[in-house]
Write a structure and sequence with these properties.
Number of strands: 3
Radius of gyration: 25 Å
Oligomer: single chain
Distance between the termini: 73 Å
Strand content: 15-25%
Structural class: alpha/beta
């Protein structure tokens, strides 16, 4: 009986000082939004690269790119994909509105 009491007391001493904590929530989050409408070309590439650079410089939490395009130059699209993959800021892309391509 006394042994169990000692073990329980030791358990309380070891566990009680350990605070329960969650990951800290950032005080403020910044989401940078970009919209791509129309054909993809060198100007679109420059725009996306500029948006990604701004997001990285300002410490944004993420970049959201909404897309409604019929396509365009494949080289420009490859450059955009490479810029997104190289971005230190997470990038979310989606096609909108419904029925868009």
């Amino acid at each position: 009986m006394i042994r169990r009491l000692h073990i329980a007391a030791l358990f309380v001493l070891l566990v009680a000082p350990t605070p329960l904590r969650a990951d800290p929530v950032p005080a403020a989050t910044t989401v940078v939004e970009a919209r791509v409408d129309g054909a993809i070309g060198p100007a679109t590439t420059a725009y996306i690269e500029r948006v990604l650079a701004t997001a990285a410089a300002t410490g944004a939490t993420c970049v959201v790119i909404s897309i409604d395009t019929p396509g365009g130059l494949s080289e420009a699209m490859r450059d955009i994909v490479q810029a997104i993959l190289a971005s230190p800021v997470p990038v979310v892309t989606y096609v909108q509105p419904g029925g868009a391509r």
